[in-house]
Amino acid sequence: MFLQEIIKTKNEELSKLTQKKRSLKSALKKSELTLIAEIKKASPSKGLISKNFDPEKQLQAYSQGGADAISILTDEKYFNGSTEILRQLRGKTSLPILRKEFIIHPLQIYESLFLGADIVLLIAAILTKQQIISFLDISNQLGLEALVEVHDHDDLEKIIDTKTEILGINNRNLDNFTVDITNTEKIINELEKMNIRNNFYIVSESGVKDKNDVDYLESLGVNGVLIGEALMKSNKPQEKIKELFPKKEHVRNG
Ligand SMILES: O=C(O)c1ccccc1NCC(=O)[C@H](O)[C@H](O)COP(=O)(O)O
């Protein structure tokens, strides 16, 4: 009898662990442009970005500025990030958290779950189609959403006919670090030619610096934008968000 009872208890505990978490997709479904605000201390293309790096203060400014989700770099070597930052900030916000990591093995997806992430990043450029399919399945089983990121046509070929729902278009070439925000228009045009644009919630990532960039991307019909450097370099990130997204609900300081 006891074993039957313990199995029932364990199943209940497991269902709590893998229940749906905070949802980025719910934000992207809204008509207003979604902002994913990124916490990034440094990067391979720019070196040190934030001298007085204070992740908790950055998170507070993003939340008060009206960000809809938070992206956190956990790579240490190239971005001066850490898993500890995600673990620390998990309990400080009710916003969905995207773990920005170079995922190449299922272990990292399980690790993301235990760190408290809600969304994982799957970069098509470093994965095979089969890995994307498999990692999407694992993420779904764990109650995690996935942002599947493409940069070019080859990446796009990999994600067609997968269960990708949230499609990130990275304007940065991750090999040579060049950035061109018109890359988003190029990829959207390809999606439209294939008649599959409406299969995805689209997030434009990288190189978004000012309101002109936001207005341009919004005119393309993207559902969200992911911004890191422009917010990390600002002395007043909450004000910067207000400048870029005047329509968002901004919580006043104090
Ligand atoms: O940011 C980099 O230099 C970089 C280099 C190589 C791989 C990834 C890289 N960045 C990750 C990102 O995609 C960006 O942090 C994110 O899209 C935000 O971009 P930005 O607003 O331009 O900081």
TrEMBL record:
Its catalytic activity?
1-(2-carboxyphenylamino)-1-deoxy-D-ribulose 5-phosphate + H(+) = (1S,2R)-1-C-(indol-3-yl)glycerol 3-phosphate + CO2 + H2O
* Pathway this chain belongs to: Amino-acid biosynthesis; L-tryptophan biosynthesis; L-tryptophan from chorismate: step 4/5
CDD domains referenced in this protein's UniProt entry, alphabetically? IGPS (cd00331)
GO BP annotations, alphabetical order: L-tryptophan biosynthetic process
Q: What class of enzyme is it?
A: lyase
Q: What is its EC number?
A: 4.1.1.48
Q: Classify the source by domain of life.
A: Bacteria
| Domain spans labelled Indole-3-glycerol phosphate synthase | 14-244
Question: Which Gene Ontology MF annotations are present?
Answer: indole-3-glycerol-phosphate synthase activity; phosphoribosylanthranilate isomerase activity
Q: Does the keyword Lyase apply?
A: yes
Pfam families (UniProt xref): IGPS (PF00218)
Q: Does the keyword Coiled coil apply?
A: yes
Give the record's keywords alphabetically: Amino-acid biosynthesis, Aromatic amino acid biosynthesis, Coiled coil, Decarboxylase, Lyase, Tryptophan biosynthesis
Coiled-coil features, chain-numbered ranges: 7-34
Family assignment from sequence similarity: Belongs to the TrpC family.
Q: What is this protein called?
A: Indole-3-glycerol phosphate synthase
Gene name on record?
trpC
